[in-house]
Design a protein that fits this description.
Length: 218
């Protein structure tokens, strides 16, 4: 049976003065635990055992209806975007990076709009945007008719945004979420499909609201 490490376990180990956790492959770390270990500078080191177990990286693109993804960020999300881009490539996704391409100060609406355009023009299957909190880029993207951008902070919100809202853009706060938490949210979002039925009726009402403004029928 695998040992589960939570954020509380990491805090306890840190409080006891531990700076290293030796792992054999029979442990499970929650995303929050991994992020807390990184924050507290606790290192995970592999300890060889007779099982010689290996950690595999599953190709989740095979289980996802999403194959091609547009990535965008402002300067606050640049480093996170770079890490996640590599992560998604190893998972089998086709990535289109619309910028920004360095950490110099820039304006989030520029890159949010570029991601949104790629999605509504069907150049990609979905978009992912990073900024400090995940809020301003979502506001921007949702100004584009047909975009349903969701700011998600955990697996539940990620799953709900896909199942109930058919979100086609995911927005994440690079300054409030750790990398491992972001990866976990992404993994959930990318393999969750829209449930349709009553949820489609509600999305149709959102589309009607968009059309009222586009056609100036208010």
């Amino acid at each position: 049976m695998k040992k589960l490490y939570t954020e509380d376990d990491i805090l306890k180990l840190s409080g006891e003065g531990n700076s290293v956790i030796y792992v054999t492959g029979h442990e499970v770390f929650t995303p929050l635990a991994l992020d807390k270990a990184k924050e507290l500078k606790i290192t995970l080191k592999k300890k060889t055992d007779t099982s010689n177990s290996k950690v595999s990286t599953p190709n989740i693109s095979k289980a996802s209806s999403i194959k091609k993804i547009a990535l965008g960020s402002d300067h606050t999300g640049f480093e996170t975007k770079k890490i996640i881009s590599g992560y998604l490539v190893t998972k089998g996704f086709d990535i289109v990076d619309v910028g920004t391409f360095d950490d110099k100060s820039c304006d989030y609406p520029d890159f949010s709009f570029e991601v949104a355009k790629k999605v509504v023009l069907h150049d990609v299957d979905a978009g992912i945007i990073f900024d400090a909190t995940g809020i301003p880029s979502a506001i921007t993207a949702n100004k584009v008719p047909g975009i349903r951008a969701a700011t998600c902070y955990n697996e539940f919100s990620a799953r709900s945004s896909r199942e109930h809202n058919n979100a086609n853009v995911l927005v994440l706060g690079a300054k409030i979420l750790g990398i491992e938490t972001i990866k976990s949210i992404l993994d959930t979002w990318l393999v969750t499909d829209f449930l349709g039925e009553r949820h489609q009726r509600r999305l149709d009402k959102i589309t009607k609201i968009e059309l009222l403004f586009i056609n100036k029928e208010l």
